[in-house]
Amino acid sequence: MKKLAVASMPIVLGAFSCGGTGLSDYTPTFDTVTVVIANAQPNPLESDVVIHTPVQAPVLSAPSTGCNAIAVANDVCIGAVYRAENVDITFNVEPLKNVKGEPVVELPSPVLVEKYKVSFTGCIPGIYEFPVGAVLQPTGDSTVTIQPITQDMKIAITEIINYIYINQDGCPTLLQRASYPSICNALANFEFDVVEIYSGKKKTIKYSLAIRLADYGEQDQCR
């Protein structure tokens, strides 16, 4: 199996709309090959929206005088890291065959995965378009790595909430930090534009992937 990595930047195309197409059973047939998406990994995609990190910040101190002094703490859990999510899409390209099981042409065409659009049935508003530019040989499976959920998407859906830091001397400081307080289960609906290179013919493959977005707060994160 061949694996192709794709670095891409999104183009926002339109407004969010509800509803999902589900996994498509459509298999595009070109002049010399057929193309299908065999699978995607991870499936489902579970994504931690915001990763909490400790930072240095001024906090209230000196309880003997009413917690009205300022000290600097090094473990204030208000830092935020956002990580883009990668998905491996496996395409299967096979030569067209005649009734005898033989390829219809001696040299089947490679296929270009030109670009894709993605929208979400929930969680993330908008329709996004990404370039791909991966060439698939007509020899079976090829895996293309895409990045359908970006850092900017995660930043856009986080909320700012109140956060209380308790200093070692017991003084509380009211601060704010980024959070994603809900859990969202949805579908990422893809439309891949694929081109048979020798003929120039273009077709679209649809595919849906289950996703789950949450602020997981895993053990290696601060609280």
What are the main properties of this structure?
4-stranded mixed sheet; 3% helix; mainly beta; rod-shaped; 223 residues; 14 strands
Could you characterize what this model shows?
Helices cover 3% and strands 57% of the residues. Strands 2-9-8-13-14-4 form a 6-stranded mixed beta sheet, with no helix packed on it. The protein has 1 helix and 14 strands; from the N terminus they run ββββββββββαββββ. The chain is rod-shaped and about 90 Å long.
Q: What Rg is obtained from the alpha carbons, in whole angstroms? A: 24 Å
Taking the sheet with the most strands, its summary is:
6 strands, mixed
Strand content: over 45%
Helix-strand topology string: EEEEEEEEEEHEEEE
In which range does the helix fraction lie?
Answer: under 10%
The tally of beta strands, per DSSP, is 14
Overall spatial form: rod-shaped
Low-confidence stretches: 5-9, 11-22
